Amino acid sequence: MNPNLLKLKAILAICFLLGAATFLQAQTVTVDNYFNNETHKDKAGNEVKFHYLWNDKASTGYSIFGQAFTNNGAAVLKTLPEKPTCKNLKGTNIYIIADPDNVGDNPHPNFMDKAAAKAISKWVKKGGVLFLLANDQKNCDLSHFNILAHKFGLNFNNDLILHVIDDNHFADGGISTSGIPMFKTAKEIFIKDACSITIHKKAKAILKDKNGANVLVCTHYGRGTVLAVGDPWLYNEYTNGRLPSIYENDKAANDVAAWLLSKTKQ
Known about the structure:
Layout: H1 3-25, E1 28-32, E2 38-41, E3 47-50, H2 63-71, E4 76-80, H3 86-89, E5 94-98, H4 114-125, E6 129-133, H5 142-149, E7 154-156, E8 174-176, E9 188-190, E10 197-199, E11 204-208, E12 214-221, E13 224-229, H6 249-264
Parallel strand pairs: 1-4, 1-5, 5-6, 6-13
Antiparallel strand pairs: 2-3, 7-10, 8-9, 11-12, 12-13
Helix pairs in contact: 2-6
């Protein structure tokens, strides 16, 4: 074979590998801190942000979920404290919004509106991966959150499913994930006091409770993907080993992170 042709093939192969490596390293996972914007005082009396954030290592945080992303690739973890726009979502591959504030969480909540929903849906349409985690109606602003959810044929309902009274009734929040492709390692998970999700258009249910209510759903929108669940679910309190060993939320966090990252590569 022509030596120059061999050299050209070698150069192209190197370029391809370098490009692939750059792509893998560029996976950025951004968690919202605008719609979910709670604070409390630490031991020193300082006002600090908490609840469903990467840097919150208490039971309220997403530090373990964040680690699941980094364990599954070269993901960069970021936080978006501003209202989402087409500009500030650029460069994000996965955007996570968990438990938008109501007035009980924050006396001056930042509600989802049409402008933010339009920007997010445009970002998804271009290939973004969106993970929406709501909560039951007493602990989350569902009415405004649904402005965004409706873009994708989803509706977070004003109900309560998987209700768990206390630690003596863990089984009421248990769901089998055996045989579900998303869950490569977790066979049984735990979700407590969620809202159900009504689905329309192309959306499909991944998990249902024993009464047939949709717990975890997925849909495609343009070149992007939307995953939704009616609870903040994968925060540290339920991924740190506190649950009975039958419930594998720690494994589920890893499975979900891997699944979300795989969707960015498509």
